[in-house]
Design goal:
The protein contains two helices and eight strands; from the N terminus they run αββββββαββ. It has helices spanning 2-19, 103-116, and strands at residues 27-38, 43-54, 60-71, 74-81, 85-87, 91-102, 118-131, 134-147. The longest helix has 18 residues, at 2-19. The chain is elongated, with a radius of gyration of 20 Å.
């Protein structure tokens, strides 16, 4: 009897896992809002809302996001997000980010950014994405080039 129960559990788990489609990556759309919470010469706090699109046919939940932000390969900030965010299926959602920025590293890159007129912004870290209480680690890897027009 016990063996039958174990076989049944294994079959249910296998059927559940095999019926799941492969998850598509979330698509970054834009920075929806940007605000300085605390501005100083040593360390500043920036609050942003990032708009993403979920191309999957199912909703998800995101929690425990932790990542570093790089400006032209120099680490300029760190973010730790510990709230639970609901991600609707096939819809846009907003990801609030509170970023601690090391202003010394930003100032180091300022001269290069002014001369190049373009900077590379990268984010690298990890988060947990899941459904119905089961969360799996998911890497955060994104890179974009941003044109700077000061003059």
């Amino acid at each position: 009897m016990k063996r039958f129960q174990w076989c049944l559990i294994v079959l249910v788990i296998w059927g559940g896992l095999s019926s799941c489609d492969k998850m598509k990556d979330l698509e970054f759309l834009r920075v929806a809002s940007f605000d300085f919470e605390n501005l100083s010469f040593s360390k500043s706090t920036v609050k942003m809302e990032l708009a993403y699109f979920n191309p999957n046919n199912f909703s998800l939940r995101l929690k425990d996001a932790e990542f570093d932000v790089f400006l032209d390969d120099t680490k300029v900030g760190h973010s730790l997000q510990d709230t639970l965010i609901d991600i609707p299926a096939r819809d846009t959602f907003y990801f609030p980010v509170k970023l601690e920025v090391e202003m010394g590293n930003v100032f180091k890159n300022m001269l290069g950014a002014l001369s190049n007129k373009e900077v590379t912004i990268k984010a690298a870290g990890n988060c947990k994405v899941g459904k119905k209480g089961v969360f799996l680690p998911f890497p955060i890897r994104c890179e974009t080039k941003q044109k700077l027009d000061f003059f």
